[in-house]
Design brief:
The chain is an alpha/beta fold and about 325 residues long. It contains 11 helices and 12 strands. Strands 6-5-4-7-8-9-10-11-12 form a 9-stranded mixed sheet. A 3-stranded mixed sheet has the order 1-3-2.
Length: about 325
């Protein structure tokens, strides 16, 4: 009994030794007191510990990561072998750079290229100027850079370039219209109607255009073409128009005859020339030049053969006249 007359309960002998022997006595005492309905107080409570749940490693790794890493390792090994073997340039020339090849493999190649507005140019010329070939991908094409390269072409006046995902490219062009050929200092240029040079003559596609020769003739090409239109029957025989002194035209016919036209009233002189060709057979004569600058006369300059023949004819005529008298 204690001093208050209360009976003390006996404690199991096996419990206390276990508490004393424990290195975590506070924990065991707290557990014992709680089990018996006693509260040991805040000083006796054990500190609360946060629990951590460890997930299995197969649940922490994203699905398919292993396969992706395997493919990446395999690709890296191939790339290393290509570089070490000195075959990188050959591979790039065949299929393009790695980023372009990957884009094409992903469906972003250039499988549909449309070019609108072609008249004088060909699709091959446009693609070569744009720097686009079969190894390109949609991502490797810089639309603005392609447009600038196309505008640098002499025949291109306007250009529009649009990407059409996933694998298309649209190029729309406005060509300058070639109007005439202009020969200056032994070189022939293709010029527009306003006389601006489009390009040098590189092939025979523009040989159908009228040819003008001389300083300033490029700016008078429209006037020359209108002069030819006054006598369409003469067009097949006219090789070129030579601007003399930037004032008047001399026609060069395809048989070598030069026809000098006046500065004023050139259409009337063209009509006289058409009559000489049709009625007098001028193109079949041994003539070097025809001067039509005077409205009331035609001056012919003959070849040596023509002059000799004319002299013989005059002698024969004079002899015949003398015999008659």
């Amino acid at each position: 009994m204690d001093g208050g007359g209360r009976l003390l309960r006996s404690m199991s002998g096996s419990l206390m030794p276990s508490v004393l022997r424990s290195t975590h006595a506070g924990e065991h005492v707290a557990a014992f007191a709680t089990a018996k309905g006693f509260d040991p107080g805040p000083r006796e409570r054990s500190p609360r510990r946060r629990a951590f749940v460890v997930k299995p490693i197969e649940r922490r790794v994203p699905r398919g990561l292993g396969s992706l890493l395997t493919v990446a390792l395999f690709a890296a090994s191939i790339g290393y072998g290509i570089v070490r073997g000195g075959h990188y340039d050959a591979v790039v020339n065949a299929i393009g750079t790695p980023d372009v090849a990957l884009a094409r493999a992903s469906g972003f190649g250039l499988d549909r290229i449309t070019i609108a507005g072609l008249n004088e140019m060909t699709a091959r010329e446009v693609l070569q100027a744009a720097g686009i070939d079969e190894r390109a991908s949609l991502f490797s094409v810089d639309a603005e850079a392609v447009r600038e390269r196309l505008l640098a072409m002499p025949l291109v006046q306007e250009a529009t370039v649009r990407k059409l995902f996933p694998d298309g490219l649209q190029i729309t062009l406005v060509e300058r219209e070639p109007y005439a050929l202009w020969q200056r200092q032994g070189e022939v240029f293709v010029v527009s109607a306003d006389g601006k040079i489009i390009d040098t003559l590189r092939d025979d596609r523009f040989l159908r255009l009228p040819l003008v020769v001389g300083e300033g003739a490029n700016e008078r090409a429209v006037a020359f073409a209108k002069l030819l239109d006054t006598q369409p029957s003469l067009k097949p025989y006219i090789r070129a128009g030579i601007l003399v002194g930037q004032r008047r035209w001399t026609l060069k016919l395809d048989n070598g005859i030069d026809v000098r036209l006046p500065e004023d009233n050139a259409p009337e002189a063209m009509a006289r020339l058409a009559t000489l060709v049709k009625d007098k057979g001028l193109l079949d004569k041994d003539v070097l030049s025809v001067d039509l600058r005077k409205p009331d006369r035609v001056v012919l300059r003959l070849t040596e053969e023509g002059a000799s023949a004319l002299a013989d004819a005059q002698k024969s005529k004079a002899k015949a006249k003398g015999n008659a008298t």
